[in-house]
Amino acid sequence: MFDNIRFNFLYIDTYSFGKNWVYPESIVPYNMLRYIEFGSGTFFIDDEEFVVSKSQIVYIPKGSKLSCYTTSDNFSFTSIRFTNSVYFEGGDFLKDYYGISNVMEGIDEKVYFEKIYHYIKEEDPARMFFVRGYMELLIGSLIKKSNIMHPEHALKLMKSEEYTSENLVNRIKKATAKIDGRIQVVLDYVILHPSEEYTPQSLANMAGLSKQRFSALFKEQVGKSPMVYIKDLKLTTAARKLLVNNAPISDIAYGVGYKDPNYFIREFKVAFGYTPRQYRLAAKE
Questions:
Q1: What is the predicted pLDDT for the residue at 176?
Q2: Which residue numbers delimit the HTH araC/xylS-type domain (predicted)?
Q3: Residues 65-85: pLDDT tens digits?
Q4: Buried b (16+ CB within 10 A) or exposed e, 39-77
Q5: Which of 88, 147, 158, 161 would you label with 39, given CA atoms 20 to 30 Å apart?
Q6: Closest by alpha carbon to 104, among 52, 45, 151?
Q7: Are residues 35 and 165 located together in one domain of the fold?
Q8: Are 283 and 11 contacting, i.e. CB atoms less than 8 angstroms apart?
Q9: Structural domain containing residue 78
Q10: How far apart are CA 203 and CA 190, in angstroms?
Q11: Sheet of 56-60: strands edge to edge?
């Protein structure tokens, strides 16, 4: 059912803090996995308290209310930010369906954090393939561990009407059937060329369909209208660029096809809850 679900890597870095570090409460605009390198700290995720220490992994779903502080003289963690390709209505896909806990022992997954960090720093045209691969392995390892730790959750999935195929499809806002080849051609092209200008007609021409038929088929298969998908792609690409280089915000806006940086800033804040500048600064805190 879930062959088309993808996890979109955004950023990774390692942070180190002293004993007085406090992260004020904020809403997280992406998913995060944090591997605790050393020290201890306390995390509040949606008002639930978690005390964490070395070699544990903290999972923070998108949209969570997060605050945290250190409880040791030195505290360090490696943090991965990512999104997934589906919206799971009324909850979080990894937590609610696969049973991933907010805090898990993570010594076995440390290697995946190290590999992702290594490849993202490489000047290699193949690096993103390795990053995506290790990202999938990391999440797969956590899902497998969750099922071993909580077999009752797997049993619940088999018995509960909430998790029947029909109900899951209704909760997942994306078609999970095989993508039509004509739509796939468009998806492959725009992912590689997010800075170009597109219209419903130009995309329909690419697919060899009428504008009306293309728009209907695209929404049926992808779960979004073509232009909403293009906008989300441009903004996600911009978010990644904000975190991995220090280019001016206007250059990033132009680089993903926005002619007006001020309009880009407004669109970005609507999507992520932060202005581009705030988003970049938050990564350095």
A1: 42
A2: 184-282
A3: 999 999 998 898 999 988 776
A4: bbbebbbeeeebebebebbbbbbbebebebbbeeeebbb
A5: 147
A6: 52
A7: yes
A8: yes
A9: 7-170
A10: 9
A11: 7-18, 74-84, 31-38, 56-60, 103-105
From 127-131, 169-173, 223-227, the region with the lowest mean pLDDT: 169-173
Predicted TM-score (pTM) of the model is 0.59
End-to-end CA distance of the chain: 39
Q: Which of 151, 170, 189 is the last residue of a domain?
A: 170
Task: Mark whether 153 and 187 lie in a shared domain.
Answer: no
Question: In terms of domains, do 28 and 145 share one?
Answer: yes
50 membership: H or E segment, kind and range:
strand 48-53
Segment 150-178 shows an average pLDDT of 49
Count Cβ atoms within 10 A of the Cβ of residue 245 and give its class: 0-12 exposed, 13-18 middle, 19 or more buried: exposed
Q: Which CATH number goes with the domain that contains 226?
A: 1.10.10.60
Q: Which of 170, 201, 228 is the last residue of a domain?
A: 170
Domain count, the chain: 2
